[in-house]
Write a structure and sequence with these properties.
Shape: elongated
Helix content: 25-40%
Structural class: alpha+beta
Number of helices: 7
Radius of gyration: 20 Å
Largest sheet: 5 strands, mixed
Number of strands: 7
Strand order of the largest sheet: 5-2-3-6-7
Amino acid sequence: MPRIERAVREILTAVGENPDREGLLETPARVARMYAELFRGLGENPRDHLQKFFTEKYDEMVLVRDISFCSVCEHHLLPFLGKAHIGYIPDGRVVGLSKLARVVESVSRRPQVQERMTEEIADLLVTELNAKGVAVVIEATHTCMTIRGVRKPGSQCVTSAMKGLFRSNLSSRSEVMTLIYGDRR
């Protein structure tokens, strides 16, 4: 935390601000606490959330959609925010639904790119649940694109990772996409 505080003071000075000005006095400490919160996923293993599962004969799709998240673009250290949709076809193992949201939370709380985040979540579910199929779709607005650079508010990036049956079976892939978007697009 002290290193971050010193770095923030240096940034404030470098951009022409006075870090000793009344309104900025506590800013370095606030920013340090913010980074600790935004990047807490670096100290977590998202795999831990998938260690407790239940043996069930259920072999149809399980889908949790609209899991909100906030992450940070590793290229500009600006937030990107959005929703993750996770579907899987169990092969004897189901996990508590909140665990899927916890995986998204853990993976999202680190500097990264959306493409890697999508793939990492899908790979975790394949590996830990031995699922027959996994579909992860992430939609996000990137502030590195909306408030700077090209400045295109309202634009969204959509990424997907399809594994197992969702990759090899067109009807399974269509079903999950219909369940995610069917009533909203």
